Amino acid sequence: MADEQKTRLAVDIYGQTYTIVGSETSSHVRLVASMVDERMKEISARNPYLDSAKIAVLTAVNSVHDYLKMKERIEQLEEELNKLKG
Fold first, then answer.
1. What is the pTM of this model?
2. 4, 50, 62, 70: which could join 54 in a potential S-S bond, CB 3.0 to 4.6 Å?
3. Is residue 46 part of a domain?
């Protein structure tokens, strides 16, 4: 089995620096970090009394919710496509 090339990149999310290690491109990792940072800032602006841990959890909950809704929509579209083919 071949070793995948790992990328190590420092990113800033909500005022903290994190080192992300993975097989994705640097631009992809930066985009993900930027989107997480933006979502955390949005949640913080609406809920200024929350600490950063709670903001992080709400960001994760919102992100998983969005993921599940998109996954559900993809499954619906795949079913429609299969009906059209069959």
1. 0.84
2. 50
3. yes
